[in-house]
Amino acid sequence: MTAVLEISGLRKTYRGRKGVRNALDGFDMVVEAGQVHGFLGPNGSGKTTTLRTLLGLIKPNEGRMSILGREVPKHLPEVAREVGAIVESPQFFGNFTAETTLSLLADAGGVNRNRVYSVLDLVGLRDRSKERVKTYSLGMKQRLAVASALLKEPKLLILDEPANGLDPGGIREMRTLMRDLSAAGMTVLLSSHILGEIQLICDSVTIISAGKRVTSGSVAEVLARHKSGAVKVRLEPGVDMMGAAQILRAAGAAVTLDTDHFTVGNASNPAQITKLLAQQEIYVTELTPVAADLEDVFLELTGTAPVEGQNRQVDETAMSAAGKGGWGQ
Ligand SMILES: Nc1ncnc2c1ncn2[C@@H]1O[C@H](COP(=O)(O)OP(=O)(O)O)[C@@H](O)[C@H]1O
Ligand SMILES: [Mg+2]
């Protein structure tokens, strides 16, 4: 696979009244061609700073970046045509229609006007394209923004928090659009602090925390590397689950009861479960590791639950509290 985007050792320091803050602290990222790549991190972790630096809007203190194999910002003038980006939410003139808006942008960018109709089709705005932008939902405005970034047929599309502020329907539309663009051969990089969506949209991810990459790879790889440590336990029908749970709890297990099974949240040594229960002549019929989801990994690595509209930065206490302790070793 070829890297469309490579970042290594990126550092950006801001000096404020409270002293020096490392917005990016030696950040690395690789995005392979044809992927929908999720750039995940809590608010304030450095996503927008990274994307703005990549586009030459911010000067880094250190680090190397390349887009489509060419070093940037040095070669930005040549690669700019190949990159479509929405980093700040674009403002459109509400009295213009989508068609007029895109036609003006096409003219300004030397793009053939026929392309306007292709991008309207791509983002699913063709049948509303003769209505004024001020009558559009936020989701439609976002899609118009994506359409404007697609006019020049970029190889790489960069979107900063495209799901921000969208309702579930809008997010679903955005997700379908990302998949369509990827199927059409485009590489898409999208940042988000909202996890659930990313797991469904992306092929691969980079997770950033406090200006550093904490993990990356295909969604499957990242999940495999971070087993949840929880196991689902089922007993023979009719056996007293409460009693079994008591035995395990007495040994330090974190047990959550369900109707027909229970979950041990901190089972780093599942054999201990069968052993403790068998000693009391309680026999296990099923013992299944519970797969981690991306949200668990995110929480574990960044020490923050992503909460929309809140600015939480990672702190060490949260990191250690998120680490799952074992028992019965
Ligand atoms: N212009 C600026 N001056 C000072 N600090 C900034 C500036 N821009 C961003 N920061 C700080 O850099 C860190 C990363 O911000 P940002 O890249 O916007 O994070 P994200 O996009 O992941 O929410 C934050 O701590 C933020 O407060
Ligand atoms: Mg941001």
UniProtKB/TrEMBL annotation:
Q: InterPro entries recorded for this chain?
A: AAA+_ATPase, ABC_transporter-like_ATP-bd, ABC_transporter-like_CS, P-loop_NTPase
Ranges where the record places region Disordered? 309-329
Q: Where is the ABC transporter domain?
A: 5-235
What are the alphabetically sorted keywords of the record? ATP-binding, Nucleotide-binding, Transport
Per the record's keyword annotation, is Zinc included, yes or no? no
A Pfam family annotated for this UniProt entry: ABC_tran
* Molecular functions per Gene Ontology: ATP binding; ATP hydrolysis activity
State the PANTHER family in the record. Answer: ABC TRANSPORTER, ATP-BINDING PROTEIN
Q: Which family does it belong to?
A: Belongs to the ABC transporter superfamily.
Q: Indicate what this protein is called per its UniProt record.
A: ATP-binding cassette domain-containing protein
